[in-house]
Amino acid sequence: MKVQREKLVLSLLCVASLQGCMVHSVEYDHTASIECLGDPMKPLYNGGIIQNAEFNSGLMGWSTHRNIKTGVRSSPSGNKFAVVRGAGGTLSSSGNVLPSQSVYQRVRMQRDTHYSLSAWLQVHAGSAHVKAVVKAPHGERIIAGSVVAQSGCWSMLKGGMTASSSGHGEIYFESDAPVDIWVDSVSLQPFSFDEWDAHARRSANATRRSTIRLVAKSAHDDKPMANATVIIELLRAGFPFGNTMTKEILNLPAYEKWFTSRFTVATFENEMKWYSTEWNQNQEDYRIPDAMLKLANKHGIRVRGHNVFWDDQNSQIRWVRPMNTDQLKAAMQKRLKSVVSRYAGKVIHWDVVNENLHFNFFEGKFGPTASAQIYNQVGQIDHSAILFMNEFNTLEQPGDLNPVPSKYVAKMTQIRSYPGNGGLKLGVGLESHFSTPNFPYMRSALDTLAKLKLPMWLTEVDVVKGSNQVKFLEQVLREGYAHPSVNGMIMWAAWHANGCYVMCLTDNNFKNLPVGNVVDKLIAEWKTHSKAATTDENGIVELNLPHGEYNFTVTHPSVMGATTMTVDAASSASEHTITVRV
Questions:
Q1: What residues are annotated to the active site?
Q2: Which residues, at least 6 apart from 350, have a Cβ–Cβ distance to it below 8 Å?
Q3: I need a surface site. Which of 29, 317, 356, 545 has the fewest CB within 10 A?
């Protein structure tokens, strides 16, 4: 009796070969809004530990600093909210202007607890950047999030913080602008570390894995084949996870082997940037990025294009800085057409105008729509790549007012709304350079940015060196992997013989350091799946698998001769049924 073996490449990424397969993912429970509304929504978690979160009982539970005049108003629809009057422009005893502040509430906080914070805010006139402030029990003043609040409508602020001590704290909202801050639907919800991590694990399992049913049937009589053996081989993980690559990989086989055995996507650290390809004006040299791209392609590694331009004044080539606007425009046109045309269809993404929330070199030369115009021109040349807005501190530092989620959304909206940009493939790039991560804020920022409904990647993940570097990196990567709107992650851990930027994964012999070990642990965990299974009496085997491309080998002693395996896919709310005929 012969045992027939037949292989099938199956993608669980829901591609055309699966005839409409859909991967179902859970939505995070938290609500985020990027719209300014006439009335605020109900407080999340019914306000959590906040008393009188909707001000339906007046100002019960709330107080004010500096004897500021306060009250409760009602909107035409009957919604109540807290107001302050004349809070802006107050002078301290030393003559300094104090920040405008809202009402505040004292709350009891627990050590080693994450707090998810949200509120709806409005200012009495114009618009202003408003911060959520938590005065922790030990006295530290923590910025837990911020938003650009407007007059005439309500904006949602989402954020959070982690308490490192127990005791009474305070929560309030403030602005450096002389405005009156109105507040409603405040929520502060505690989560133990175990609760937080359990939610991330559940989300990761629901988002990155699917349950499929394989039904083995005989081609001879179309009957189910009981006790057939199914061998499962994962060919390529579905979630893109990668690292930064440097030119040293071209001459070091050990580096090449280490990198290509782990990662499915890459970003060139500097080699594709303008100052690397045209250090001297009109002397372009693409030999190094060409060779790196060829190496990546050889190993099936997809590459992000980083970057077309960098908005940082200090990162411009020395011959670019003194140019007048006409000269700069001509040089930029040459650069854009050169690099984008060369790699169009060969890179999966472009970081188009890098870090254009923190910096404004090109806006300073050509006006506020400079970035939007550059996106337009890149999109006209490369129709396949996703065009990313790549920025730092949007996830990392709630106290950095330049890249907060509301400003990120506003900039992306400006790019989208520029004439001719409506059909561009745009993406959210979040660099993710962490020191001490604020995980409640990170999650809330991801929730807010997810409302843009664009592809979202963590593009340059690293954690500064320190006693908690390994722990923090693992937590950051798990948080990103678990969020259903994150579509891929790349670390900023490029290897150099003389040291890395802030985070090395290996030593100079390409032996893993502790940080590299935790990366390998996560890669292995995210690929974990059954290697073999046996069909039941109905010819069915049910498998829970991480998304990716697979070989399924089906063997059965009753099969002789040539066998054709076909796949019929159907979607349901929680699983996919694949019929295999042998």
A1: 355, 460
A2: 304, 305, 307, 308, 340, 378, 382, 385, 386, 387, 388
A3: 29
Nearest to 116 by CA among 47, 217, 19, 18: 47
Instruction: Report the alpha-carbon distance of residue 489 to residue 265 in Å, rounded.
Output: 9
- Please state whether 557 falls in left (phi above 0), alpha (psi between -120 and 50) or beta: alpha
Q: What is the DSSP code (8-state) at residue 264?
A: S
Nearest Cα neighbor of 134 from 423, 441, 360, 364 is: 441
Contact (Cβ atoms closer than 8 angstroms) between residue 352 and residue 303: no
- Report d(CA 22, CA 51) in Å as an integer: 42
Model pLDDT, residue 86: 76
Q: How many CB atoms lie within 10 A of CB 543?
A: 21
pLDDT in the model for residue 160: 97
Paired residues of 568 in beta bridges: 579
Mapping DSSP onto H, E and C, the string for 183-252 reads: EEEEEEEEEEHHHHHHHHHHHHHHHHEEEEEEEEECCCCCCECCCCEEEEEEEEECCCEEEEECHHHHCC
Amino acid at 98: L
Regions of the chain short of the pLDDT cut 50: 1-27, 29-30, 560-578, 582
pLDDT value of position 288: 98
Other Cβ atoms less than 10 A from the Cβ of 425: the count is 16
Written as one letter, the residue type at 131 is K
Q: Is the pTM of this model over 0.85?
A: yes
DSSP annotation of 513: P
Phi/psi class of residue 282: alpha, beta or left (left: φ > 0; alpha: ψ in -120 to 50)?
left
Which residues lie closer than 8 Å to 514 by C-beta, 6 or more apart?
Answer: 470
What CA–CA distance (Å, rounded) separates 78 from 31?
A: 23
Q: How far apart are CA 210 and CA 24, in angstroms?
A: 8
DSSP 54-71: T-TTTTTT-B-STT-EEE
